[in-house]
Design a protein that fits this description.
Elements (H helix, E strand, L loop, with lengths): L1 E5 L5 E9 L7 E5 L6 E3 L1 E3 L4 E9 L3 E8 L3 E3 L6 E4 L5 E6 L2
Amino acid sequence: MIKKRVFKTKDEVEVTFEWPVDDDIDVISLVADFNQWEVKPMSLNKRTKTFKYKVRLGKNQSYQFRYLLNDNVWENDPDADSLVENDFGSKNSLLSTY
């Protein structure tokens, strides 16, 4: 799930990435072009039973990202704005801040 909070007086959007807790998942990381494709662990929120990662991104931009589950399984976000082909023969999730 992706939540976007647009600031009217700033040129940025607060984006919260969420993934539901699952018994088979111990750790989830967000990997994205806005963080130079570095693996960024998501925080576990026990109250909402989700893994979360929050970031502020520039308005009127598009960003590619994927989730890395248990350090070995790649997943896309079903709530992404779109999917785009990547250089590895699969697809990346696309987030738009327009």
